[in-house]
Amino acid sequence: MNISRRTFGMLTAGAAAAGLLSAPGLSRAAAKVKLRYGTAFPASHPGVVRITEAAKAIATRSEGAVELQVYPNSQLGGEADMFTQVRGGALDLMSTSGVNQTVVPVASINAVAFAFPTYDHVWKAMDGELGDHVRKAFLDAGLFVFPKMLDNGYRNITTGAKPITAPQDLNGMKIRVPGNQLWVTLFQTLGAAPTPINFGELYAALQTHVVDGQENPLALIQSSKLYEVQKYIALTGHIWDGHHIFCNNRRWQAIPAEMRTIIQEELTTAAVNERADVKDLNEKAMVDIKATGVEFNKVETAPFREALAKAGFYSKWKESFGAEAWGLLEKDVGTL
Prior knowledge:
It is a single chain. With 336 residues, the protein is of the alpha/beta class. The chain has a single domain (27-328), classed as 3-Layer(aba) Sandwich (D-Maltodextrin-Binding Protein, domain 2), CATH 3.40.190. It is built from 14 helices and 10 strands. It has helices spanning 5-21, 24-30, 46-61, 79-88, 119-126, 129-140, 181-189, 202-207, 218-223, 249-254, 257-290, 302-310, 313-321, 323-333; strands at 33-38, 66-71, 93-96, 143-145, 150-159, 174-177, 193-196, 213-216, 232-248, 295-298. Helix 3 (46-61) links the parallel strand 1 and strand 2. It is globular. The chain starts with a helix and ends with a helix. It holds the Pfam family DctP.
């Protein structure tokens, strides 16, 4: 069959175009997944450093098909704002601890005061059955939670005017807490005046005496330079705080399975590495903060636990979280 030169050219061009469209590189480009990850952690915190490393590894392993952009220091809004964005699909991923309690109440069970004596107790529970129970509750609320939590460390109380040595030292003290009912009721029960303030506004609130004190892990106290506007740190270790990493589940399920595997594996690696970083950083932070003149004191926790138990704090939260979740908690940490 005779084909004109013009027709041959058109066929050749069409075949070339078809070949380009099926080329692996262009297919990846056409299917590129762009994800945004928001966090209140400062850029220097291991919870940002390790996730940023994971983003690079994800890009490499996916050959550029997945781009994970990390926004630290509440750049995309306060934690409550970012949580709302993830639920609505405007933001893809975030990590947080407490603000999700209104939607997933059991998500704050790790914050039961003085529940975890050691990190062995923490990871046995949160990487195990209790963590699985919490992750299922997130999924039921439309949020996919990654299997490993980030460590935010044990929380300690800082103050500007006086040290905290016993429960009565908290009477009437305005203390910044996350916008989380468990934190609020904890400090109300101990006689303080808990005041929710976005973390990004905390330094200024302490500097201007909007609040008298706050409570956070040492690594975060150091990385956010809160020690510059506080004089005392009481090593209460009253709450072990961890950040769940989660994604809007509709968004997560829309990502190709192979890419989801890469993302999950790298974020899991990041979380495990971050845990070791935070442990080391907390130990170093105490030395460095002491060198600035801040005074540390170790408190006896039994009086705090006794005050909470007497006021019905534990029984109230057992009822709130439910018998199943509370049973899983006590299975790993003992009777509260």
